[in-house]
Amino acid sequence: QVQLVESGGGVVQPGRSLRLSCAASGFTFSASALHWVRQAPGKGLEWVAAISFDGSASYYIDAVKGRFTISRDNSKSTLYLEMNSLRPEDTAVYYCADLIGSRWGQGTLVIVSS
Amino acid sequence: DIQMTQSPSAMSASVGDRVTITCRASQGISHYLAWFQHKPGKVPKRLIYAASILQSGVPSRFSGSGSGTEFTLTISSLQPEDFATYYCLYYNSYPYSFGPGTRLEIK
User: Which of the four pLDDT bands, split at 50, 70 and 90, describes residue B87?
Assistant: First the structure.
């Protein structure tokens, strides 16, 4: 069955870094554009970043440009989100998703706090 | 960038009611609009894509319409399991954009 499993969340101090991973199975990972979507506590869903099927192109919301980097390893069927210079407003549940194929992970919680 | 708005932001309704939620885009987006249902602690579930195509497995009481800048999600007869938050999503060119959500509560 289709699975997207995120890992790497946790508590981190402002200004520090964290890398999220999303391991995929059950579908043709290398054929799908993939996304990170987040939900801050008490807030709505926010699209954060996307990467093309082959990793040649990536896209971000302005709030994370220059701080976050999305990448993928198609040989490992794994999506990544490298998050640098973290801010308290980055606190959220982060989901990896294939939005076109309607596949979502369960989410991983990132808390940025001193 | 395209901005999405939704109305109302919250509403209360009763089981059996007909409910309509509106989503507006800051510029024309053709039919590149999806609707999601999200419940606390659960993964968002896509209900509708391409503005009006029902996702496989989603009950037929859900329907979507619209194109250009104005879209609607209609639930023809509310069921207890439908109380949730609903989001529209623009998904043609980047950056994608979710609407702020409509929280549907039990009256």
Answer: very high
